[in-house]
From TrEMBL:
This is DNA sulfur modification protein DndD. Coiled coil: none annotated. It comes from uncultured marine group II/III euryarchaeote KM3_173_A11. Gene3D superfamilies: P-loop containing nucleotide triphosphate hydrolases. Residues 6-256 form the Rad50/SbcC-type AAA domain. GO terms for molecular function: ATP hydrolysis activity. It comes from the Archaea.
């Protein structure tokens, strides 16, 4: 097992001078306590920067400039130094590498002398890493740390409790999948897949003529980018469809409640309720009409396509294009006649005739006809005319205008009835239902528009990928099918297929352990755990589905509260730690953020002591106050107790301390 033994911080923010923070000793839970704003998050930053430097900074401080930030982070109470610098050092013990020290220093020099300069040193048992011949020291050291504690893992095990409340369990992105794969020892397969992709691209590049290399490379890059966008669009459509179904179900429930309201209510309210339901239904119908136009004729109208193509001189363009086609055929015929003459026409005479003929037919359609359609080919113009007729563009502008006017009228009437209903039923549940129904309808409309937009984008990207793949095939067709390079490419493709098959099977074997560990973690955290009926983890995407008693569908599709999202995020962390084959310490800042007293108690006494073999908690007085510190102590899992306290307006110190007083015990 890997243990963090100490962290050293020098001249970073309020940590002036050299600060040594022991991290292990006694029980498995180390508590570092501090009031808000004193230095907890600074300690978490120090862990991140020590391990991964600028790379992790970009994620934690999006949009900030590192050099400017690190200059501003230099302690204003540090002793005067000839060469100002900020330094971090993390010492750890590892079963393979024994005692490891990772030290990262940022020299803060004037821009004329090089500006911010980074120095990274790793030692094993006091000896520096041995470099291979030709290796760059910084690159090699970064790669060594990445192999020991990969960045995707650090993202999961150095946890900001406040940010967990923003965790979306239904948005398992590629970054999170990468980190889970790495933890479950599938990450090596991903690295091998990437390596094979690189070899395949280089092999294909060698197979084609040299003058096609750049074109092929651009096509391969574009295809890869489009495939990533397709995956993102599919995920977005799936998520939006799920949200749409939930909202539609709620709208149906609300409409049913409206219909089942007591018939004893006053006639005015009854009439308003009926009118509200009718207008709500009419708006739904109009919304469908608008969505239909958004995906058919409306984009062409917005682009400025006229209701009559003759406004763009379509007949003249078609005639000019047909003439251009005939001119090409006539030129070919003329050449064939010259070739068949016997005796042949003199060279000078033939050249004069051909030049004159080319001059006659050289004028383009764009020069002959003034029209935005002049740049199209004859085939493309035919396709446009066909689509124009299919969409009924000659009447589309009037139709769209009528639909929008009708929608605005119905929306105005709906809002009027809704306002009257709310006023007439003020203080009654029906008023709240009316407001909710109106809000849900607006959200539903937005989702439907998003789904329509993403579906159109998806179709466009998939069509583009198909076109690109045909172009790639055309370029590759110029190579020898039986060549060594072709056989090498086929072998790589088979290997990639086998890797994908193995990865899916391996993930499938891990799905059940992940489900069981997630359930165990959730039961340690949430009082809703007694209503938990089933947990399913998708072995391909790690998407999680929770079946809860009393909740139809996936409980995670609900609009979860901040606390519920935090519980889901922590349960996933717990599952990864339990199932993963890498026993890594967990550092968590503000561990019970947003939790009520009961959930805090469960977290402190049941969850965190079981989360890892080493848990380092950065806590405020709220996190372990109200008797929680004493409860943690009674579990006999409490190890080191450290206190960060102010010693001046701009500096702090860390010392071992009995934290009972700090937590009000």
């Amino acid at each position: 097992m890997t243990y963090f033994t100490s962290l050293q911080i020098r001249n970073f923010k309020r940590f002036a001078g050299e600060n040594h923070i022991p991290l292990s000793g006694g029980g498995q839970v180390t508590v570092i306590a501090a009031q808000n704003g004193v230095g907890k998050t600074t300690v978490l930053d120090a862990f991140h920067l020590t391990l991964h430097g600028k790379r992790v900074f970009k994620e934690r401080y999006l949009g900030r400039k590192f050099n400017e930030w690190i200059h501003n982070a230099y302690s204003i109470e540090s002793e005067e130094e000839e060469y100002p610098h900020i330094q971090f050092a993390l010492e750890l013990s590892d079963p393979i590498h024994d005692n490891v020290r990772i030290q990262r220093t940022y020299w803060l020099l004037p821009d004329d002398d090089g500006g911010v300069t980074e120095e990274l040193v790793v030692t094993k048992d006091g000896k520096p890493l041995e470099l291979e011949a030709g290796e760059n020291k910084l690159d090699y050291t970064e790669a060594w740390i990445e192999a020991l504690l990969p960045l995707p893992l650090s993202r999961r095990f150095l946890v900001d409790g406040e940010r967990l409340s923003d965790f979306d369990p239904q948005e398992i992105d590629e970054e999170l999948i990468e980190s889970i794969d790495d933890l479950l020892e599938i990450g090596m397969l991903q690295k091998l897949e990437t390596h094979l992709q690189t070899i395949q691209r280089e092999t294909v590049r060698k197979m084609v003529p040299e003058d096609e290399h750049e074109t092929l490379e651009n096509l391969l890059t574009l295809r890869h980018e489009y495939k990533l966008e397709v995956a993102e669009l599919k995920s977005g459509i799936k998520s939006s469809n799920a949200q749409r179904d939930i909202i539609q179900t709620r709208i149906d429930e609300l409409n049913e409640l409206f219909q089942n309201e007591s018939l004893e209510e006053e006639s005015e309210v009854a009439n308003l309720r009926i009118g509200f339901a009718i207008k709500q239904s009419e708006l739904t119908s109009v919304r469908r009409d608008i969505l239909d136009k958004m995906t058919t004729s409306l984009p062409f109208l917005i682009a400025g396509l006229p209701t009559d193509l003759q406004e763009w001189n379509v007949a003249e363009v078609k005639a000019a294009l047909e003439s251009e086609r005939l001119n090409d055929e006539n030129l070919k015929f003329m050449v064939s006649v010259f070739d068949s003459l016997d005796p042949s026409l003199g060279g000078r005479s033939r050249d004069r005739i051909e030049k004159a003929a080319h001059k006659v037919v050289s004028s383009s359609v764009h020069e002959d006809v003034s029209s935005p359609l002049a740049h199209l080919s004859l085939d493309a113009l035919g396709i446009l005319e066909k689509r124009y007729d299919e969409l009924g563009m000659s009447e589309a502008q009037e139709e769209v205008q009528n639909i929008i006017d009708n929608a605005m009228d119905k929306l105005t009437i709906f809002n009027k009835i809704a306002t009257q209903l709310v006023s007439a039923t003020e203080g009654l549940s029906i008023s709240e239902m009316a407001n909710e129904l109106r809000d849900k309808g607006m959200v539903l409309g937005g989702l439907q528009a998003d789904i329509s937009r993403m579906s159109d984008e998806l179709l466009g990207k998939e069509t583009a990928i198909s076109t690109i793949e045909k172009q790639i095939e055309n370029i590759q067709s110029k190579s020898d099918k039986d060549s060594h390079l072709n056989r090498k490419k086929d072998t790589i493709l088979r290997l990639r297929g086998l890797l994908e098959m193995y990865a899916v099977e391996h993930r499938s074997t891990l799905a059940q352990p992940l489900e069981e560990a997630f359930k165990e973690g959730f039961e340690l955290l949430s009082r809703k755990s007694d209503r938990l009926e089933k947990i399913t983890v998708n072995p391909r995407t790690y998407q999680t589905e929770l079946k809860m008693a009393g909740f139809p569908g996936n409980w995670l599709d609900r609009d979860l509260s901040a606390t519920e999202r935090q519980h889901v995020g922590l349960s996933l962390l717990y599952a990864l730690r339990k199932v993963g084959n890498r026993p890594i310490p967990v550092v968590i800042d503000t561990p019970t953020s947003r939790m009520d007293r009961d959930h805090k108690g469960w977290s402190v006494t049941r969850f965190y002591p079981r989360l890892s073999h080493q848990v380092i908690v950065l806590a405020t007085s709220d996190d372990l106050g109200d008797g929680l510190y004493d409860e943690l102590k009674q579990t006999e899992n409490l190890g080191l107790e450290l206190l960060i306290e102010e010693i001046s307006d701009n500096s702090v110190k860390v010392s071992e301390s009995n934290l009972a007083v700090f937590f009000g015990e």
